[in-house]
Amino acid sequence: MRLKNVPGSREAIAESEYTIKDAEGMKGKWHEFFGNNNPIHIEIGMGKGTFIMELARRNPNINYIGIEKYSSVLIRAVEKRIQEPEMQNLYFIRMEAEYIENVFDKGEVAYIYLNFSDPWPKDRHAKRRLTSRQFLKRYEGILAPGGGITFKTDNVSLFDFSLVEVKEAGWKLENSTRDLHHSEYVEGNIMTEYEKKFSEMGNPICRLVAFPPEGAVKTD
Prior knowledge:
Layout: H1 9-15, H2 30-34, E1 40-44, H3 50-58, E2 63-68, H4 71-82, E3 90-94, E4 109-115, H5 133-140, E5 143-153, H6 156-168, E6 172-177, H7 193-200, E7 206-211
Parallel strand pairs: 1-2, 1-4, 2-3, 4-5
Antiparallel strand pairs: 5-7, 6-7
Helix pairs in contact: 1-4
């Protein structure tokens, strides 16, 4: 994916009060940072922040952290966040997802959202996909008991790959659909920027919910 460079985005992100500067230094201290013991949910690859901001509005008793590696994308989320200073439960990190265990302690994250992740289509890059068994193992290292992931994509090949990886990693597939917007799971669904775009193009949206091998519990 080729992204348009946004001049000054790195500097603006570094200066923003809504971005975490020393994320690794926060490991094990996130509840202290938020000043409460509310559950912490994260979105990895949050794009321009539409999805996670709506989650934060709807659920003030949940703390949210959006993770995005591209400054030119993250800056758009920061600009939106500035417009809602009363929101106290949402912050951002600019980082590569592979270092997630350096930022969150064991059991510190209650839930993970993966939306329209980079498909990394070449076979040799399979382990870079956010639903690969390598990444699922990383998520196991930070999820609290009962925590899991929700993954959405319009890429059928990536979805097929993800279903296999969930099984091979020993995770429990709670539910899945290849056409979210015409399924029983659409109620309460929050669309991302890509989801709106792809849906308008007529692309079905695939979605799965899965939990780690131990402590998997059903959530609505």
